[in-house]
Amino acid sequence: MDFTKLAQVQLSHDTNIRPFKCSEDDLNGFLFDDAKQFHKELMAVTYLIEYPQEDITVAYFSLLADKITFDPENKSVWNRLNRNIPNPKRRRSYPAVKIGRLAVHENYTGEGLGTFVLDSIKYAFTKVRRLGCRFITVDALSSASPFYERNGFMFFTESDKDDDTRLMFFDLRNFNI
Fold this sequence. Notes:
Order of helices and strands: EHEEHEHEHEE
Number of helices: 4
Shape: globular
Distance between the termini: 20 Å
CATH architecture: 3-Layer(aba) Sandwich
Strand order of the largest sheet: 1-2-3-4-5-7-6
Largest sheet: 7 strands, mixed
Number of strands: 7
CATH superfamily: Gcn5-related N-acetyltransferase (GNAT)
Structural class: alpha+beta
């Protein structure tokens, strides 16, 4: 797929959502049933990745504010996070942006579109810098956690390894483009 032919559109209350279908019904439902309400209530911002020539939405993602907070029961994770932060800048919490949803149309999986979306998010928070943000977090579906791992995300803990979702993070200081 030629990514230069794609257009990114921020969803608003009057956005006409082009056809989209991925393999997860919950992700389809969020886009068509909930995303505009989340936007209206200032809870998340959703971006559509459209392929205008095909009149289709090939992917979408939603972002919302988050933070990583010290948890005394996960000291090893906290030590790993703090290791890359200079001592005078260490805090009890760090700013993060959460990927609330990320989905790729079922006809476009395996073409690098998901990685392209993640790299675009990483770029926006490291190069454009409209907001101070050190980490990206995601509650990844267990089936999607290998994808996030390939894109540099790490697990917060092993205690959720048998859950439907896994809490993961990416340190934006590790992003180089």
